[in-house]
Design brief:
The structure holds two protein chains of two kinds.
Chain A (H helix, E strand, L loop, with lengths): L2 E3 L2 E3 L11 H23 L1 H22 L9 H11 L7 H13 L15 H12 L1 H4 L3 E3 L14 E3 L5 H4 L4 H6 L11 H14 L5 H17 L7 H10 L3 H8 L10 H21 L6 H18 L13
Antiparallel strand pairs in A: 1-2, 3-4
Helix pairs in contact in A: 1-2, 1-3, 1-9, 2-3, 2-4, 3-4, 3-5, 4-5, 5-14, 9-12, 10-11, 10-12, 10-13, 13-14
Chain B lengths: L24 E2 L5 E5 L9 E2 L11 E2 L4 E4 L8 E2 L4 E10 L5 E9 L20 H10 L12 H4 L10 E6 L8 H8 L1 H15 L3 E7 L3 H11 L5 E6 L8 H9 L14 E5 H12 L6 E7 L7 E6 L4 H7 L7 E6 L6 E2 L13 E6 L16 H5 L6 H9 L3 H6 L10 H5 L6 H17 L1
Parallel strand pairs in B: 1-14, 9-10, 9-12, 10-11, 13-17
Antiparallel strand pairs in B: 2-8, 3-5, 4-7, 5-6, 7-8, 13-14, 15-16, 15-17
The chains are: A mainly alpha, B alpha/beta.
């Protein structure tokens, strides 16, 4: 594409490029996840840190070996996948499970499709789904380690509690500030809506994620939770809010349903995608057999991404509507 | 200040401070000029060999017509210096091909053609007079598009024009020629606009200037304060604000339909330089034989805004500006977003040459691209609301029917998508391929 004649370079315009690269964007995502990772360590102690480190290093190593590249960090996408997967795991998860999950995420979730840009499903969620289906006991459907804030020496695997989503009577044992700040049983990174929101706002500000996806996702969960959640916590609106902050909706909506590669590129498509994720999540939560549904909601919507894009091609500037 | 924003766009580093405070300098007459027979969109000029005997050895004077074409969408070319025709033949053209051109060696006297004389008062000129003067003066769009100006002043009967916009956005990074023209030739711009308003029977004139040029805005505003049918519109600084459809949308709120010309919504756009040229053609009788351009970039030793005779070789202009630095890696005619990289500086300045930009190894991006990560930054930056990545992907697969379904033909190649792409995919390049292929199939 670039012709060099004698000394002058000739290439197609534009001749200026922004400084942004895949690596800089992925680094920004890692920075955005820092508050959530920090909260995980504060709430769940050293086990959280070990899980995150194992997951990130496994992901980067497997990717480097697969691509036969010496650059471990490379474009940063493997590190993001590794960290995201770790944040969806329970603190008490055995180390080998982290390795299996992280390796599955990179190999089955991403590299077999051709690497970055070509995968259909969110790699971190592919890894998580494999663990949930294969080692359900360790992934504890409704029993999670309880947080022990600032007690770094404690082995959280010995203190377990039920996820707030298990049943309304369990949900009622947590206050809303606990649900929002995150000192409730749950996976490492999902419990603190506060930490997740801080990173999310920054990503929207940087232009890396489109508010339509988390907006559509969270709004749908809220509406369906309010309408069909059963009205505990005093009133329907509070129940809707409960469904947003308890469980994995916030982390999924901000960091996983916004994964570039596996989500629509059109503005309308992104809104539909977010709403679809919220819808399936609530179908699973309210009427399914699992207490939580975000993983499969996003994976299902990932599969629908090409068709959503195809039916939501935006009208060009000055154009008249024509059916796709 | 306009409160309307166009969708998309990008904010590249503007780099205008290199030259924005430098007054226009007149380059001394060149020893030699090369005048291509095509410097406009439309039918190329034919050499006036028969009656006017433009051939090897002919003595020509400044402003004497060298070539013309009877076609309506065309524009004559004139001798920019006085001297002797030493060669007629194919010569390098900034658009990348070789075009028939007249080479004139200067006699150093700068003698003007006797036929050149002022046309008189604007009030005494008819609409037809103005159109004829503009055509005969060889005036084309000086912003870079080089569409013959008289054509834009002759809309069809059933398409009345009520607004004329003077484009002083100059949204391309680095370029400051229009900025300086607005500061130094303010009065001529307003006169040119009045002539256009008269030729079109339009009631309102708008001068659109990006708000990163506050001094130009002030200068313009002061001059039109007394004119009740002309207003200055401050445009938010965002590339490509100067693109016709974006400018019209922001300045008037009107949306030019896809695939249509601005006259569909009663608007005609002209660049500030074109307005000056029209003013000079009417008041001095002067055809388009020179223009102002910005010579800039880290590779230029002495950046400047220079007024040069058309046909001056880019090598001579660069020499006048202190020459190129050793580190120069890319030479661009035009701006960095839409300009054309040149393999060889031995090309003439033509009517549409708005700048000469020399980029060094530090500014030139040479690395390979990565796969698309579908971040959709190209989609959100596209001012035409297209899906550049999808068009590029279709083009890459050779599926041009699909590329057309994504409105490839509506792309005007502003380059925002390629600029913003974190994977550094040459999106515009793929879209150009798609457009060319779609047009080729359509013409079959």
């Amino acid at each position: 594409m670039i012709i060099i004649e004698e000394k002058l370079v000739v290439s197609s315009s534009p001749h200026m490029r922004s400084v942004e690269s895949i690596q800089s964007v992925m680094t920004d995502v890692l920075i955005a996840l820092f508050p959530a990772a920090l909260m995980a360590v504060l709430l769940f102690g050293y086990r959280a840190l070990i899980t995150m480190v194992i997951s990130i290093i496994t992901a980067m190593l497997i990717e480097a070996v697969w691509r036969r590249k010496r650059d471990l960090f490379s474009d940063g996408s493997a590190a993001v996948t590794g960290l995201l997967l770790a944040l969806t795991l329970p603190a008490a998860v055995p180390w080998w499970l982290v390795v299996v999950g992280s390796a599955s995420a990179i190999i089955i979730g991403k590299q077999v499709f051709g690497g970055i840009g070509y995968n259909i499903f969110n790699p971190a969620l592919v890894g998580r789904a494999i663990l949930v289906v294969s080692w359900g006991g360790h992934m504890a459907g409704d029993i999670w380690p309880s947080p022990q804030p600032f007690a770094f020496g404690i082995d959280v695997s010995t203190v377990t509690g039920a996820t707030a989503l298990a049943a309304p009577e369990i949900a009622m044992t947590f206050s809303f500030s606990e649900l929002f700040i995150g000192n409730i049983p749950g996976s490492l990174g999902e419990t603190s809506a506060l930490a997740l929101l801080i990173g999310g706002i920054w990503l929207v500000y940087k232009g890396h994620i489109d508010y339509r996806i988390p907006g559509g996702f969270i709004a749908t969960v809220f509406v369906l939770g309010a309408a069909f959640g059963g009205g505990f916590y005093g009133n329907q609106l509070m129940t809707g809010l409960f469904h947003v902050v308890a469980g994995g909706v916030v982390i999924a909506a901000i960091y996983m349903a916004t994964d570039f590669v596996t989500t629509p590129v059109t503005p309308l498509g992104r809104l539909i995608f977010g709403i679809g994720c919220g819808l399936i999540t609530m179908l699973i939560r309210l009427w399914g057999t699992l207490p939580e549904g975000v993983t499969f909601a996003i994976l299902i919507m990932n599969a629908a991404t090409p068709i959503i894009d195809n039916f939501t091609i935006p009208r060009q500037f000055g154009g008249v509507n024509k059916s796709a | 200040m306009s409160m309307v924003f166009f969708k998309g766009g990008v904010h590249p580093e503007y780099q205008k401070e290199i030259t924005s405070t430098l007054a226009i300098v007149k380059m001394p007459l060149p020893q030699k000029v090369v005048v291509p027979m095509q410097q406009h969109i439309g039918a190329p000029c034919e050499l006036l060999a028969d009656v006017d005997k433009i051939e090897k050895g002919t003595e020509v004077k400044v402003g004497q017509k060298l070539g013309d074409n009877k076609g309506f969408v065309s524009s004559p070319v004139h001798a920019p210096i006085s001297g002797t025709v030493t060669d007629i033949g194919l010569y390098n053209h900034p658009l990348g091909m070789k075009i028939n051109a007249v080479t004139i060696e200067s006699d150093g006297r700068d003698e003007w053609d006797e036929a050149i004389k002022p046309a008189g008062d604007l009030d005494n000129l008819t609409v037809e007079d103005i159109r004829r003067i503009v055509r005969e003066a060889g005036i084309v769009g000086l912003g870079g598009a080089t569409f013959p100006a008289h054509v834009k002043l002759s809309p069809p009967q059933d398409k009345p024009i009520d607004i004329v916009i003077i484009n002083g956005a100059e949204c391309e990074p680095y370029l400051t020629a229009d900025h300086r023209v607005m500061l130094e030739k303010t009065e001529e711009i307003v006169f040119g606009l009045k002539a256009m308003l008269k030729a079109l029977g339009a009631g309102e004139g708008i001068i659109g200037v990006e708000d990163n040029k506050p001094d130009a805005l002030r200068a313009m505003e002061q001059l039109v304060a007394e004119e009740d049918n002309i207003r200055v519109c401050s445009l938010p600084t965002k590339y490509p604000q100067g693109a016709e459809k974006m400018l019209i949308y922001v300045a008037t709120g009107r949306t030019v339909p896809a695939g249509a010309l601005p006259l569909e919504v009663g608007v005609v756009n002209h660049n500030v330089g074109t307005a000056v040229a029209i003013s000079q053609a009417i008041r001095e009788g002067k055809p388009l034989i020179e223009r102002v351009l910005t010579v800039t970039g880290a590779g230029i030793n002495k950046p400047a805004n220079v007024q040069v005779r058309l046909g001056t070789l880019v090598t001579d202009v660069i020499d006048f500006c202190g020459g190129l630095k050793e580190s120069t890696l890319k030479l661009i005619i035009g701006g960095p977003m839409m300009g054309l990289a040149q393999p060889d500086p031995d090309v003439p300045v033509i009517k549409g040459t708005s700048g000469i930009l020399a980029l060094t190894d530090e500014d030139v991006y040479l690395a390979e691209s990565s796969p698309c990560i579908r971040c959709a930054k190209c989609v959100s930056s596209c001012p035409m609301n297209l899906m550049p990545t999808s068009i590029a992907q279709a083009a890459e697969h050779g599926d041009f029917t699909r590329a057309e379904k994504f409105y490839a033909l509506d792309c005007f190649e502003c380059g925002c998508c390629s600029y913003i792409c974190p994977s550094k995919i040459p999106l515009v390049q793929w879209i150009r391929i798609a457009k060319a292929e779609i047009m080729k199939r359509k013409s079959k």
